[in-house]
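Researcher: Next entry in the queue.
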Amino acid sequence: MTDLNAPNPAKAGTTPGTSGSPASLAARLDQAQPYALGLFRIVVGLLFACHGASSLFGVLGGSAVPAGTWPGWYAAVIQLGAGILVLAGLGTRSAAFLASGSMAYAYFKVHQPESLLPIQNGGESAAMFCWAFALLVFTGPGALALDRLFGAGEATAAKAREDRGAPVAA
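Model: Structure for this entry, 170 residues:
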């Protein structure tokens, strides 16, 4: 009779505890997760800020929107401001929430009436920014964020976990 829990020699390199195992790869990826999330936040924030700067100042190949026009100028201000905050990792969740909402508005009011699908109505960037910022609302800023320098992000999150009765990882 064979032991079903014994390592299978045919699956060399995949047994738990070996350096080439999927479990080991998952552990290494988990260690890098805050840095990947931080890099994601930086890139998304930079791209969003560039959209705002393009619309406000006519730089980077864009044309300036007249000041005070609805909704273009206000959207550009949100893009530049929220983009810079997200890029820096300062008030990330709040800035990402505002940015996500503004992109949802842009998609449903500007793009979606033209056609149902983003590929047909030119709303791919609005939809992608909306969901990228929604993800940052729930995940937080990751590594390399200014919030971490001031201790605001981690302390607030740990306090919220304690209030809910969830265990706090050290």
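Model: Residues 22-57 form the longest helix (36 residues).
Researcher: Noted, moving on.
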